[in-house]
Write a structure and sequence with these properties.
Elements (H helix, E strand, L loop, with lengths): L1 E4 H15 L4 E4 L5 E4 L2 E5 H5 L4 E3 L4 H13 L4 E5 L8 H8 L2 H4 L8 E7 L7 H4 L5 H5 L5 E3 L4 H13 L4 E6 L6 E4 L12 E4 L4 E5 L4 H13 L4 E5 L2 E3 L3 H11 L1 E9 L4 H10 L6 E7 L8 H7 L3 H12 L1
Parallel strand pairs: 2-5, 2-6, 6-7, 7-9, 8-9, 12-13, 12-15, 15-16
Antiparallel strand pairs: 1-10, 3-4, 8-14, 11-13
Helix pairs in contact: 1-8, 3-4, 9-13
Length: 323
């Protein structure tokens, strides 16, 4: 295994699948599908596969997602990368077509397509126009579309492989705040399931649940709490739709305390869904959530980091719920 960055791991997965399937295409705007990694060959999808298979469009997110939906209906695997400027724009096309066509055709149509949506709402310094893209709840609300949000390079590659091999459409959320994250990732292709959360640490006093760019802060807070003697079980959701209710319920049935941490807005964010699912299945548990306030993100990185749930906020909330 080799130490790899998030984007290198993703493009490695894509390149390997494109080598195995000559009909697979990749569509992008603005962000060339190029990645480098120390000690590894540069990945350049356009250079390797040509412009007929790696298509640089104009700035038109609706066209991009429509094109891959059409390719999927025609029998080709396809993926598109929508950068932060337009991650909200294609919602109606995905909701009204990708999410419904399999059901509308009685299962005859398959849609082996992946929509890679860059999330900058969890990243300071992008200014209000671009840091307001909290799209996890938005896309998780669409029926017929699986919505995933890896938080590590290992999962980023494995879940991309699984997404590209799925007969159903997948919204693959890419938290921009994890750009610099690296870890050891296998060179070969492997799959990470698209329906399972990951238990990052085990404990019996408190369950903390997070996702995406919030996971580094969750893990940092858990380490502090564990050093203080608290048994903290950390769950990384990884999948927002369909959410792994079983893992959540089993954990809280043991700890009887749940802290849901959400980098998205407080109202109707994934944390609310986590608490609702557990509350329906576990009696006598205590619940608490922390999330980004229902307010426009500031341009100031310092103020943004103060508003976003961080390790200090998570540690304080955990101590309050455990008492």
């Amino acid at each position: 295994m080799t130490e790899k960055s998030w984007m290198y791991s993703v493009l490695e997965a894509v390149a390997n699948e494109m080598r195995a399937d000559p009909n697979m295409i990749w569509i992008y705007e603005l962000t060339p599908p190029v990645a480098s990694n120390p000690g590894m060959p540069v990945i350049n999808l356009e250079e390797e596969f040509g412009r007929k298979r790696v298509v640089n469009t104009g700035i038109d997110e609706n066209w991009m997602v429509s094109a891959v939906i059409g390719a999927g209906l025609a029998g080709s695997r396809a993926a598109t990368y929508v950068p932060y400027q337009g991650a909200c724009m294609p919602f109606q096309v995905i909701q009204n077509h990708a999410g419904k066509l399999r059901q509308m055709t009685g299962g005859k149509a398959t849609l082996p397509v992946v929509f890679v949506m860059e999330m900058t709402g969890q990243t300071p310094g992008f200014a209000g126009q671009h840091s307001d893209y909290e799209i996890d709840s938005l896309y998780a609300h669409i029926s017929g579309v699986r919505t995933i949000i890896p938080s590590t390079p290992y999962d980023a590659k494995g879940m991309m492989v699984s997404a590209l091999r799925s007969p159903d459409p997948v919204v693959y959320l890419y938290p921009a705040g994890l750009r610099t994250l690296t870890e050891e990732v296998p060179d070969d292709q492997y799959e990470v399931p698209l329906d399972k959360a990951a238990v990052r640490s085990e404990g019996s006093d408190l369950t903390i649940v997070g996702s995406g760019a919030g996971m580094p802060e969750v893990l940092a807070a858990a380490k502090r709490l564990q050093d203080d003697g608290m048994g903290v079980e950390v769950i990384d959701l990884r999948v927002l739709k369909e959410m792994d209710t079983e893992t959540l319920v089993n954990s809280v049935a043991k700890t009887k305390r749940l802290l849901a941490v959400d980098q998205s807005y407080y109202t109707l964010g994934p944390a609310a869904e986590v608490i609702a699912r557990v509350a329906e299945n576990v009696e006598g548990a205590r619940f608490k959530r922390i999330a980004f306030p229902d307010a426009a993100p500031p341009a100031s990185p310092e103020m943004f980091l103060w508003m976003r749930p961080n390790a200090d906020h998570i540690t304080a909330a955990a101590k309050a719920i455990v008492g």
